[in-house]
């Protein structure tokens, strides 16, 4: 669905085409921080040829915003033409939050078509074109992917564009573009489900059907092994919702790309290695330079390598996940002049398609002693995590980020198609998506992140016991994050991770258990993270996925009545 980003109190969508006389003020706002610091990575996705030649997709700053404004207003100043209502025409084109995000290339196509349908281009050589740009700067505060189209209504020859009935014209243009690009249609009395696109209720029904079918199959398998589980309709609403959400995200290619990048980031010890690991995973990589040069790298874009004859679809790091923006990734690595230069060399080689400049440990198999070292460090890290309050969002976000990266690296190594490890990485990454950068925490890579390097390499079988010990600690980190979610009142997220651990990850754990874990590497007893519950040696190695009794912070601590309690109450009421 394409619509304007102006919301009424009752949730209706209203047109928000605006006019003015100050292109400089508008452009500075579009490349600035936004009213609530929601603007991230401002750059051009479309515009007239001169604009794209000068600025490409580089990150825009105030100086570039002023240069763009001067270019836009040049015809108006040269010809001295006044336009009633203002010569600067501005419109925001947006998607619904639940429709996800588009690539820059797709937004470019939409912007070009929209400007043509509005009559602002040369109309196939019959008119002089208007100068215009389309800016993209991240999601809105409501989570909507969008672009801003800015047009000078004074054409190159001094004539005026005719914005008469521009609201109606823009509405009609959006409806046409929805059909052309397969976007969700706007609902209305005259619009039915036969229109090209999809309806949210239809997608939800399909996700519910798939989730229920998978659950029924799993329940039958468990029953054959003597384990009984409730039927679908008896599951808590939070667990049913978690299963449906998993199905809704299963087919999104951006999720798979984010998982691959997350695994590379966690396994890398510095930015240069991060670039090399992404290329090692057969990803296309290109840097984003600061405006006006090629020596300062402010961001990056990646794309899955397309099949022959297709064009790659690029995604900026920030659009893959808040924790995958380059500034946040850099907080994981030590900042040195030598490291910055090495990273710049690798970025340049990636952009030009040349061989890596200085291949490093991503090409080597770690020795057995390294597995033992990180297993001991992870045990220490888990003890620290067990003492971390559920409300310490910064530290839990780091733990979730690193654990998600380790599962992602492991999945990339051993899963031909996304399986339990991939789903664990995706689910854990949700706890790493903080709106603001994590501050106040020392910059270092935790042992969980370091384990990603080991799992990505998947050393030989001669150190199976050490590998199993590292994997056991990684499972314990996932259990700790699950417990944190429960203690923080994150019911749906806790249910999603609990379901994943109970049904899928426990099978992975059993597969590794026969390899044996040396008794010296597993503590004889430990405590349940957050709750302080004492665990047996077996539970300490591969923790039970069933959470203990937890009281959500800031919520009602009274337990909910069971179905048996409700039945007794109904009986007394008769």
From TrEMBL:
InterPro entries: Endonuclease_MobA/VirD2 (IPR005094). Transmembrane segments: none annotated. Residues 84-183 form the MobA/VirD2-like nuclease domain. Residues 339-367, 516-574 are annotated as: Disordered. Pfam families: Relaxase. Residues 518-542 have a biased composition (Polar residues). This is Relaxase/Mobilisation nuclease domain-containing protein. It comes from Branchiibius hedensis.
